[in-house]
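Escalated from tier 1: alpha-D-psicofuranose holo job.
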Amino acid sequence: MRAGYLIMPLTSAQTDQAIKALDSFAIELPSWGFANTGTRFGKFIQASAATTTPEKIADAGAVHKFTGCCPSVAVHVLWDFPKGVADVPEVMQVAKDNGVRIGAINPNVFQDQCYKNGSLGNPDPEVRKAALSHILDCVEIQNATGSRDLSLWFADGTSYPGTGSIRARKEWFVEGLKTVHSALSGDQRMLVEYKPFEPAFYATDIADWGMSYIYSKHCGPRARVLVDTGHHYQAQNIEQIVAWLLSEDMLGGFHFNDRRYADDDLTLGCIDPYQVFRIFHEICYFTWEKGAAPDIAYMVDQSHNLKNKIEETIQTANNAQEMYVKAAIVDHAALQSHQLKGNLVDAEETLRDGFFADVRPLIQEWRKSKGLPADPLAAFRESGYTAKAETDRGARNKGAVSSYA
Ligand code: PSV
Ligand code: MN
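Tier 2 regenerated the structure:
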């Protein structure tokens, strides 16, 4: 029975649980989060932003150095490997020099002119072939980097009713994705990401988790669903999707970010930290019940247009870590018992106890015990990294626009 509604310090069991969570939690950073990206209405250029793949990786390495929880970097092949597999040795070396490793490989079949009517769902077989060939090249890169995950997102769909056969496009996707699946080996996986709209505005070919699930099931055991938190309609219950995918052993990974309206790509937890907590809670509850953590790739997918990109990424890593620890210290045994007995208030309060617990002092102690700065953001600012990057990269960034603030 819950003792009451007083604020209590963490119990020793909760402290142990929190430390275990901190020791195991890692989140992957996107190389594209460090370059001057923005919205389709404009970019606000930062003089210190990364201008090359080595600079993006160095920035990700800086985040890992100060937070200790971001050991890998997801890469976008078209943007990071312009020469394809030939770029792998240099990129791997840069990663090593910066204390990180190369993570998920992201093909890009949405930018080239030929993809106007889609990639694997394009009615033109030549374009489908071109898209498939690029994805298979990405598997080569995946083999060379030793990356476990191929992260697949498609901009495919139609923007006007009647302009494409929804069923034919689905079948073309099944065919293409199956071929990709058959190219994988060892422990490699393919993660199938969904998004309800943008850039297609009428019928996106992989619009929701059900479609990702069905495509993955058609492909085989290496395919899993990738949940990008920004890719849902307003008010959609993401943690319920997470719980269902966990229960079906079909949750492969996340692209984390926060949003207010659509795919806003804002700092994780800046708008709704309780949602991040609830998502992590489903995973921690599952872990508690099964006695082992599910195999999930936690990744960030954000576009930093206004804040300093490295500072925003440190905020993201800190928020992720904090919400994960809060989720891990929930008294799951008590929660389950309240749920089974229909004790609604006690069950809800047990969940809220985790969310409202202030775990920041404990995280600071954990950081110190690992030789990390207690305050990663302050330590990053004190390091002078941004000033140096402005000097080194400013001229190149200035070339991107006529002026920057
Ligand atoms: C698409 O909106 C997306 O979420 C996909 O994951 C892409 O790979 C990423 O953003 C970068 O464009
Ligand atoms: Mn994404």
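The longest strand covers residues 101-106.
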